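Moderator note: this is an archived Q&A kept for reference. The question asked for a predicted structure of one protein chain; the sequence and the answer are reproduced below.
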Amino acid sequence: MEFEIIAEGLRFPEGPVVMSDGSVIVVEIESKKITRCWGAGKTEVIAEPGGGPNGLAIGPDGALWVCNNGGFLYHERDGLLIPGHCPPDYSGGRIERIDLSTGKVEVVATHCGERPLKGPNDLVFDKAGNLYFTDLGKSYATSRDTGGVYFLAAGSDTVEELDYNQISPNGIGLSPDEKTVYFADTMTARVWAYDLERPGVAKQATPFTKGRVVAGMPDLRYFDSLAISAAGNVCVATILKGGITTVKPDGSHSHIECPDPFVTNIAFGGEDMRDAWVTLSGTGKLVKCRWPEPGLRLNFNA
């Protein structure tokens, strides 16, 4: 597969959002900012929310919604920028919205009930404007937080729990019919699914869990963020075994390699939705390629 470099020199890019004007908006997690990439090396800073801006999505209000993980420690090794544990200047996890015309940052949510959000990671809106997002938690030298999957109803400021006590929820997406929520668990390299009774409420899959495992990987790799194809396949950015792992609803899977061991996200766009933008975070690049199948057009991403 051929990759065109759209931008480089980025500080751990993630969360690509493909805009109708041809630009792609990404976060630079290590630099704590949001950057618009135009191609040919042209970039501009949209906002600097601080902490650790992570997942991005355009909301029903036309604003850019952000999962902010509060920050990571970083180190460099063999030419790669690598995130690590919770930093001394950790600023707390939160959901934010950014006015794209002004760059103004507004904090939308910091808690689910009495529980503080620790490391919000990725997010997706359904067609009604309801928000689903993951919280990866934070890791420390000898421990880590339990993660969760959350729901924020359109027009509400109250975060609700879809599920909790997962190991490391990361990428999240909705099936084309919006009856299933998929998420990728980083440390176990599994894709999970929640079948919905109604928005924000998952059916009980077993006596022990609301979710069901769609697929788990047989080798050492970590799952990051994801995008859904038009056919309902889950395209998961994959770390260590750098590339995109595509998981079908029946659990079968395939893998396309990318030139970076820290591949963190994929987003679809273009006239036929077969253009794919991939974040190569270790080497600080946003690249573009032609994907084997069209991606699913996101709600509100006109």
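Archived answer notes: The domain at 4-290 is CATH 2.120.10.30 (Neuraminidase).
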